[in-house]
Write a structure and sequence with these properties.
2 copies of one chain form a homodimer. The first copy, chain A, has 2 domains: about 5-65 and about 390-460, Urease, subunit C, domain 1 (Roll), CATH 2.30.40; about 70-380, Metal-dependent hydrolases (TIM Barrel). Chain A is about 40% helix and about 20% strand. Chain A has a 4-stranded antiparallel sheet with strand order 5-16-17-18, covered by helices on one side. Chain A is built from 15 helices and 18 strands. Chain A starts with a strand and ends with a strand. Chain A is globular. The interface between A and B is large, with 65 and 65 residues. Chains A, B: Pathway: Purine metabolism; guanine degradation; xanthine from guanine: step 1/1.
Amino acid sequence: MEAIMLELNELEYLHNAAVCVDRLGKIVAVETDCNQQKAIETVYTRLGWSLDNVSVTLARAGQFFFPGFVDTHIHASQYPNVGVFGKSTLLDWLNKYTFPMEASLSSLPKAHRVYTRCIRQTLAHGTTTAAYYATIDVNATNLLADLCYSMGQRAFVGRVCMDHLGPEYYIDESPDQALAATRATIEHIRGLDSGFEIVSPILTPRFAPACSAETMRGLSELQKQTQLPMQTHISENANEIELVKELFPDSKSYANVYDTYGILNEKMILAHAVHLTEEEADLIAERKTKVAHCPVSNSALSSGVARVRWLLEKGIQVGLGTDVSGGYSPSILEAARQAKLVSNHLAMPGGRSDNLPQEERDKSKLSVDEVLYLATKGGAQVVGLADKIGAFQVGMQWDAQLVDLGAVPAEVAEDDFTIDGSVDIFGWEEWDECIAKWVFNGDSRNTKKVWVQGRLVHQQT
Amino acid sequence: MEAIMLELNELEYLHNAAVCVDRLGKIVAVETDCNQQKAIETVYTRLGWSLDNVSVTLARAGQFFFPGFVDTHIHASQYPNVGVFGKSTLLDWLNKYTFPMEASLSSLPKAHRVYTRCIRQTLAHGTTTAAYYATIDVNATNLLADLCYSMGQRAFVGRVCMDHLGPEYYIDESPDQALAATRATIEHIRGLDSGFEIVSPILTPRFAPACSAETMRGLSELQKQTQLPMQTHISENANEIELVKELFPDSKSYANVYDTYGILNEKMILAHAVHLTEEEADLIAERKTKVAHCPVSNSALSSGVARVRWLLEKGIQVGLGTDVSGGYSPSILEAARQAKLVSNHLAMPGGRSDNLPQEERDKSKLSVDEVLYLATKGGAQVVGLADKIGAFQVGMQWDAQLVDLGAVPAEVAEDDFTIDGSVDIFGWEEWDECIAKWVFNGDSRNTKKVWVQGRLVHQQT
C-alpha cells in the first residue's frame, strides 16, 4: 500500500507498506518495505493470522490511504441550508435561516431525512469523525446519534442548550429543563453505545449569549460528573463580541465568561476564535482548551480570518471544522483548502498585518502539509482522540480513506482518456505535488472507500 | 425548458420556455410560457421548421440551461501545474514552476497532451469561451488553436510575447522575432477559421516587465492593422509593481506604461488589477479597457484582493478568469465562488477597508447573482462578444450548459438515495437557493452537457 502520515510540518509517506487491522478495527502491525507476499510470510505469521481469514485492500497505482478527516465543528441540523446565506452575517443569519431550520427538525421524519443525508455526504467526503451540534429537541438529537451509530460514523452528538435570547419558538424553557433534556440524550446514547466507542454525547452550550449563567454552571457540574467533552462558539463576529460585552459587563473578555463558569478547560472545543485578544489566547492556552478553525464559514459570513499560526505558536491545539451551514461545504478537504487560502490573506498587502514587514506576515501562511495535519491529527487532538485516530500507528484505530487521484494513462491515448474528477495527474509529478493537486482540486470523487474502526462505511458505487 | 439569464443584480428565470437554435448555432426564437406541444404548433410554424428536422433537448426536473462560462484569463500551457505552487508568490513562482513548464511545451507531443486535457477539463466545467495564453512557441500555439477548433471550444489563442528579462532558455530573441512569430500564429489561425468565428488570435504581450518598448509598439501597430484583441497582466503583486517602477521610471503608473505604447484601449484585457491606484482605474475606465478578475489565483499566490465593486462603479467591464495555474482550478464556477468570498474579505474587520464604516465596507460584497453575471455576461463583454454570447436572446449564439442539481427524490426512500455530486437539493428550496447551492457546492458533475454555437462539445458519459 501507499499510506500517508503527517506531522505538522511534514507529510510522511509509507510506500510499499502493510498495515494490518484486527477484527475490532485496531491497527496491530505496520510493516514498511513490504509487499503482499512478504506480509503473508512474516507479518501474518507473527500475528498468528491465517490467510483464509484476512481480507486485503490494496492501493492501486494513483491511490493511497490517508487518515480519515475529523470535522471538529458541524451543525448537522443546518445541513439543508449549505450555500444559502444571502448577504447576511452571523446574527441576522441565525434568525433568518438557522433557527427556523433547526426548529423544524422536531419533525422526526424531516430530521431523519436531513441527518441521513448529512452523514452520507460527510462520509463520502472522508469525514470519519464529526463533532455535531443537533438541535434543542431530545428525540431528534437521539435520532442523530442512532443514525451515526448505524451508519458507522464516529461522532460526538450534542443537544444544543439555549435558554436565553433565542426566538420564542425555539428556546429551552429554563436551565432545569435544558439540563434535564441534555441528561436524557446522554442516557439515550449510553444505551446505544455504552462505552461511547463510536458515538459519544458532547455537552453543547450554544454560545454565551444564548445561555443563562445557571445553565453554564449546570453544564460545568454535569461535566465534572460525567467527564464528557463540551463544545461552544467564541469570538466569531464583531457584533456577537459586542453583545457578549453587554450581557456580561463584569467579564474581562469573551473567553473569561466561559472561564468564570468553569467550562474553559481541556475538554472544551471552541469554534471560530477569529477575534481573540492576546490575553484571551493566553488564557485558552493555559486552560489547554481546543480550537475548531472554520475558514469556509468565516469567509462566507464575512466574520474575519482566524490567526492559526499565532494560536499554534501559543501551544493551542487546532483542528478544522466545516461549520455547516455557516460554512457552505460538508467537506473537510474544502476546509483545508480554505484554511490555506485565508492564511495567505493574512500575509497580503492591505490585510490585517499590513504594519508588519513582509517576512513576518509570510509566517502566517499555512502549507499544504500543515492544513492536512489540522484536518486529521490536529482534529484528533481537538476531540480528545489523539491516541486513537489521525494516524496509522500500532494500537490506533483504522479510521481511513482510500484516495484515488486517477491512474496515470501513460499508455492510453489522450483522446481515449475519460475524465473522472477534477484532479489531473500527468505522471511526472512528485508525491507532494500529487497531494497538493488533491488538496486544491480534489472532491468526493477521489474518496473511493472510507473505514471507521475497520468497518467499511462508504464506497463509491 | 428552464433557462436562467442574468443582469448584474438579478437573475432572470425563464421557466417553461422554448429556445430555438438553427443549424448554425444561432438562437432564432425564445418563447416563454411554452411547452413542447405549443412550441411545435406555434413557433415551428412561424420559423418554417418541420418536426423531422428538429432535435429537442429538454431540461428535466432539477435541471436548467445556463449560459456557458467565459474564462477571460487562462494559461493553457500551465495547466499541468494546477495546485502546485508551494509557498511562492508571483515572481519566484514564475521562475520555479511556470517558465520551465511553458518551455517544455515546445515538444509537440507533450503540448498535445497538456492542451487536450486543459480543453477537455474546461469544457467539462462549462467553459464555452476561453482567452488562452499559450507559450512563445509558434507550433505549439498553433496546435492549441487547432485543438480548440476541433474540440469546439470558442477560444482566443495568444502566442506569448516576451523578449525581455525572461530566462535564457525561454525568451523571444528580439522584437522583430517576437512580432514575426506572432504574425505566423495569426496566419495559421486565419487558415483554420478565416472569419475567426470559433478561434481567434489574440495579441499577448506577457506583461510590461517582459516586453521591450519596441515589442509593445510593434504590437500596437499590429493591432491597428488587424483589429485583433489583446491581453496582458497588470498590478498583480507588490514586487511586480516595484519592478515596473524601476523599469519604466518615466511612467506615471503601471497602467500608464501600456497607455504610452498605445495598447491601453477597448480591445485590451487586463488580468488581475489588484493594486490599481485611483488614477489608474480612472484611466482604464476612460480607455474602456477590460479587466479579468482572478480571485482564485490572487488568493493562492497571496497577491491581494481586487476591488471589483470599485471597478464596476467606475464603469469598467469585468469578467472572471481562472488564471490557471496561478489559480489552482480550471473551473469558472470556482472562480465565481472565490469572487464572492474575496469580496467578503474586503468587508471584514481587520481588512483593507478597516477605516471605513461597516455599511460602506459591506458594499464591497458581491452577491451570487453578481458573480454569475461576471462569469457569463461580464466575461462576454470583456472578450468583446457581448452581442453573441452570455445570454439567451434571439440573434445570439447557443453557447450553453445543461446544469443538473439532481432530481429531488421526493418519492425515494432516503436510504435508497445515491449521491451524485456535492449539491443536495431537498425539494423545498426556492430557485435562487438552488442556484446558491450550485455556486457554493457545484462542480463538473453538475454540468451534464455543453454546447458551443449549437454544437454539443461535452456530455457526461
